[in-house]
Write a structure and sequence with these properties.
With 204 residues, this protein is α+β, with helices and mostly antiparallel strands. The protein has helices at 2-17, 23-37, 80-84, 121-126, 187-197; strands at 61-64, 67-70, 78-79, 94-101, 104-112, 132-134, 139-143, 146-155, 163-171, 174-182, 200-201.
Length: 204
């Protein structure tokens, strides 16, 4: 009987001598288990941006300053105002573009003309009286749903490009003008037609 009574006392002594658990470790373990049990949200799928088709080819097309105009693919327009003064480039309300290669020069200008209904005054602006001269009668065309005034010109600006043409039209509150120097007289009319077939304007 003494031996049996000694066994519970031995267990008590062993339990009393066993190392006690660290409360800090228990708290850290409980916190880690709680965080692991928090449900996570399924992330929203990233939307895929699908490419859209453009209504017209961008090849041979200038689009800026809230209008677009066609040009031969062999040349490209650059901002002539920015070339003259980088601090005062073209803007939506007024500007000047040019495109050039040894066999062709094209110029486009525009300005605010609020209240005007006729852009023919722009012909006097784009035709340089010092080197250009009208060589035909003023003609009116309906191009790109716009009424366009056109006149053939000759020029001494460059010996290799003695011919050309100049045009003017209104789009919204802006007046536009176009001029080309060409090696043959008939080329300017074709170039204008091609340019205006692709002309678009934000007519505000």
């Amino acid at each position: 009987m003494k031996r049996l009574a000694f066994i519970p006392i031995l267990f008590f002594i062993i339990a009393a001598c066993a190392p006690k658990p660290n409360p800090g470790a228990q708290i850290q373990l409980a916190v880690a288990q709680t965080i692991a049990a928090i449900p996570t949200y399924t992330p929203y799928p990233t939307p895929r941006i699908l490419p859209t088709t453009t209504p017209m080819s961008l090849s041979g097309l200038f689009c800026e300053y809230e209008f677009c105009i066609g040009h031969p693919v062999s040349i490209a327009f650059f901002d002539l105002d920015a070339q003259h003064n980088p601090l005062a480039p073209s803007s939506i309300t007024q500007g000047m573009l040019a495109a050039y290669n040894p066999s062709l020069l094209i110029q486009v200008i525009w300005q605010d003309a609020t209240g005007a209904s006729d852009a023919s005054f722009m012909l006097d602006t784009i035709i340089n009286g010092k080197v250009d001269a009208r060589s035909g009668d003023l003609k009116a065309f309906q191009l790109s749903n716009l009424s366009v005034d056109y006149v053939q010109i000759t020029t001494t600006a460059t010996p290799s490009l003695p011919y050309g043409g100049a045009a003017a039209w209104m789009c919204g509150e802006r007046a536009f003008a176009w001029k080309a120097y060409t090696p043959q007289a008939e080329l300017a009319t074709n170039l204008l037609t091609e340019a205006m077939q692709r002309f678009q304007c934000n007519s505000h």
